[in-house]
# Entry
Amino acid sequence: MERKPKRRTRERIVETSLRLFNEFGEPNVTTTVIADELNISPGNLYYHYRNKDEITNTIFGAFEREVDGLLAAPAHRAATVEDLWLFLHLLFEAIWRYRFLYRDLNDLLSRNRLLEIHFKQILERKAAAAEALCRGLAEGGELLATSEEISALATNMAVVMTYWLSFEYVRNPRNPQEGPIAARGAYQVMALLAPFLVGESRQLVEKLSREYLPG
Amino acid sequence: MERKPKRRTRERIVETSLRLFNEFGEPNVTTTVIADELNISPGNLYYHYRNKDEITNTIFGAFEREVDGLLAAPAHRAATVEDLWLFLHLLFEAIWRYRFLYRDLNDLLSRNRLLEIHFKQILERKAAAAEALCRGLAEGGELLATSEEISALATNMAVVMTYWLSFEYVRNPRNPQEGPIAARGAYQVMALLAPFLVGESRQLVEKLSREYLPG
DNA sequence: CGGGAATTAGAGTGCATGCTCTAGCGGAGC
DNA sequence: GCTCCGCTAGAGCATGCACTCTAATTCCCG
# Structure
């Protein structure tokens, strides 16, 4: 009936699941739908994965590895505004590729203990990375703020990094374009710490904003 | 069998549903559970409400009325930092009482068109109220920022106002205490615009923070 | 009382979904 | 060609859910 390569079924399941999860939301994608989309039988799907959660967890594992790599970088490196700008773009791009996790976050976490624990860790690492970046900028004299201000700022950065996609989704449910949303998210996070920046760094932010905001 | 007052069934259904929704999440509360909790039959429940969505919509209607009242206020009044502080507390308190809406937001909106439209409006009104408050402070000379900065700031305020509860919930799933979470949310939003405030207003924020943050 | 309307009970239905079970296919090595 | 084994098909099961239907009860009002 078909001439597709047969040996990649396990990989194809996660690829297709990720695509469908992102498009329709994980709760709205049944195992039958995944199997149909792949033109395989439910039995075949369950031969490769014990249950639906195992598919979700596999996808989440890939996401976690990617994000961990990104979040680890800022910790041990001198921070500049350009670093932050790049970091935010990479982060939002990764989040976009796994956006289903963020769309039905609480639902997923309440049904899956592993996700609950690990996602919480990711959140903490996000806040820690944001704080490390801010303190790095402060040490370099590019940012001027008290320790309390930096703590609150880092927390707010974590909030916006985590929920910007959801926010955009509620504001505009039928508008799934990556570029603008990710760039806008990076801009919004940048706007959080812009007022704390001094002189040339602040002007750099304004320049970056002008370049990326209209596009 | 029972001696409870019988005539309030319709009201008791929404009251109990709200409580259960908030505690366990709307998707995890079945109509059977609601009926059981009230010691009534499913048939009785469906006599008063055509379906589950009608219960949700009724609750949402009450929430919308409350929030609309709150959001309308800042628009036509001279703004001060104290006004904002009070406004944020009232808003977070209202959100807390209807927190189930925010917990499974995307799930709810994707299954309920009325909610999708009206919640979107609420979001827009939140951003508008935040922007009005900021511009009011700017006119009063208490806040110093460009128009672009105020726009980005208001958007970020809307994000934190909307998702602070979710954020706290992910960070600490088993810790349902109202006071600290609402106060902390107000503080976080305040921290967003603090760097734009001048002189005495900024010191006032620091004072308010010291009072409410540890508690 | 009596009768009609409002309310309630509770068994039951239909459907969706995650998942299972068994039989069979097909390719690689002997 | 045979056999073994990884892979696949697909009917079907168990469960949980929102929701329905009819009969009974209770309440209101004359």
User: Anything to note?
Assistant: Chain A touches chain B through 42 residues (CB under 8 Å).
